[in-house]
Amino acid sequence: MDEVELPRVLAQLWGVEEGRSRPGPKPAFHISDIARAAVRLADAGGIGAVSMSKVAAELGFTTMSLYRYIDAKDDLYVVMIEHAFGLPPELPPEQDWRARITLWAEAFRDGLRAHPWVLHIPVHEPPLSPNQLAWLESALHAFDGTPLTPQDRLSAMLLVNIYVRGTTQLTANMATDPDEAREADRRYAERLTLLATPDRFPGIAGAFGQQPPDETDEFSFGLDTVLDGIQARIDRIR
User: Fold this and answer.
1) Residue 69 to residues 12, 214, 221: CA-CA distances in angstroms?
2) What DSSP assignment string belongs to 139-179?
3) CA dihedral over 170, 176, 221, 187, signed as positive or negative
4) pTM of the predicted model, to two decimals?
5) What is the end-to-end Cα distance of the chain in Å, rounded?
6) How far, in Å, are 112, 134, 158 from residue 90 at the CA level?
7) Cβ-based burial of 123 (10 A; exposed 0-12, middle 13-18, buried ≥19)
8) Which of 3, 32, 31, 13 minimizes the C-alpha distance to 132?
9) Rounded to an integer, what distance in angstroms lies between the CA atom of residue 124 and that of residue 145?
10) Angle ∠(5,62,35) on CA atoms, nearest 5
11) Are 76 and 70 spatial neighbours (Cβ–Cβ below 8 Å)?
12) Coil/strand/helix, residue 45
């Protein structure tokens, strides 16, 4: 069997590049240093604030020095996501599958909220870095004890993943300060009441005529509905 060739960034993240020699001086820092610097920039100014030159300046080195570690900006995104998310949460084996995948989904949501710039990074291929594979493995094991096949588990995980990313994307650009968020909700309710009258938009008027729902409750409602669908599939298999 032919040897599998890994991109240099993955070889470094997996620690399998030690035996490979590259010309030039000895590396002055580790790829994790690059990740931390880039994440700091993104957390402060969004993904648009991240460039090879700015990351190099953050580290006190020249832009060319980064190319001893990173071949392209897409590789920089890989190490940023790897560092930003870290390892997945511990999923208690004594809990049922629903409680475990809920814990996983909430941790994933919290990671996206802490680093919303992740949502603006294009997804070109499935994850291959160590921490990202750990998140995938964790989600698959959340379904232990169910009759779902390995492919079913993967599809269920993707469904939860898409739900979490989608709901977080919708709220990522909204006000995060509690007072600002409440004021925004109040203004929206007033304007909606004026424009969406019950005679013309009865569905909207009925749905929004009450107190605006809590964001956490909305997330839980949607997630529970997704999990209800997975439970229905489990029941059909049984």
Assistant:
1) 8, 44, 44
2) HHHTTTTS---HHHHHHHHHHHHHHHHHHHHHHTTS--SHH
3) negative
4) 0.85
5) 40
6) 18, 11, 19
7) exposed
8) 13
9) 32
10) 55
11) yes
12) helix
| Vertex 79 angle, CA 27 and 166, to 5° | 170
> What's the rounded Cα separation, in Å, for the pair 106 and 103?
5
Residue-wise pLDDT for 187-228, tens only, equals: 877 888 888 888 888 888 877 766 555 556 889 999 999 999
- Is the separation of the CB atoms in 61 and 75 below 8 Å? no
Residue matched to tokens 């648009």 = 48
User: Which tokens belong to 46?
Assistant: 């969004």
| Statement: residue 143 has pLDDT above 50 | yes
Other C-beta atoms closer than 10 Å to the C-beta of 146 total: 19
